[in-house]
Design goal:
five-stranded mixed sheet
Length: 223
């Protein structure tokens, strides 16, 4: 299968191409320039692979949670490219994309959601190497992160970088913390493979970001 993947949910902008299970990708610290950078990156990757959009089997994007603007960019570009070619689209959780980087079996993912909050989820790898959701994605305060049972858990994501108390909250359960991880198109492409193979993709008109939070900033009296 040939799958193009896009990820713009953080300050990083990344593109990846999965060709028959082998994934290659590029990531750039984009700041707020995702919209200017994403399409040239896509064009470069396809040109280097000597592929046209029409030769792909599908397009995947990091659906969130994450930056409101970033999520809309990845979704919008995926939809536009898919509309132009009639390709299906797969929306991939950014939290699962971070868990995928650890190569662990039980993972707590916490991404900094700003405003003193976290995007959180806990996953366990199944026998088929897919992720089973133990605690579903949610928005919470670091001190109110959902409990997990047992030991051998791995923690990852910017939430652990920004909120040191989070590791204390799970000190009896976590075996290792993987610092410095953020969503990347490389893992979005990996996770999209099973979705396309199982037919769990959508028409581009139905591709939607996953926001979780419904506001982007604190009001003056909340600061």
């Amino acid at each position: 299968m040939k799958i193009l993947a896009l990820e713009t949910s953080t300050e990083f902008c990344s593109v990846a191409l999965s060709l028959d299970g082998k994934v290659s990708g590029q990531e750039i610290l984009a700041g707020r320039n995702h919209s200017e950078m994403i399409l040239p990156m896509v064009q470069k990757f396809l040109a280097e692979a000597e592929l046209a959009l029409q030769q792909l089997d599908g397009i995947a994007f990091g659906a969130g949670p994450g930056s409101f603007t970033g999520l809309r960019i990845a979704c919008g570009v995926a939809q536009g490219l898919a509309y132009a070619t009639g390709l299906p689209v797969a929306a991939i959780s950014t939290l699962e994309a971070v868990a995928q980087q650890t190569d662990a079996e039980k993972v707590i993912v916490a991404l900094d959601a700003r405003m003193g909050e976290l995007y959180y989820a806990a996953y366990q790898k199944s026998a088929s190497a897919d992720w089973t959701t133990i605690n579903p994605p949610t928005l919470c305060l670091p001190q109110q992160a959902p409990a997990v049972s047992g030991d051998g858990w791995h923690g990852c994501g910017s939430g652990f970088d920004v909120y040191p108390d989070l590791s204390q909250l799970y000190r009896e359960h976590i075996q290792q913390i993987h610092y410095g991880l953020h969503p990347r198109a490389h893992e979005v492409a990996q996770l999209a493979l099973s979705k396309f193979r199982d037919g769990a993709c959508v028409d581009p008109a139905h591709a939607m970001p996953v926001y979780i939070r419904n506001k982007v900033a604190l009001k003056e009296n909340e600061r």
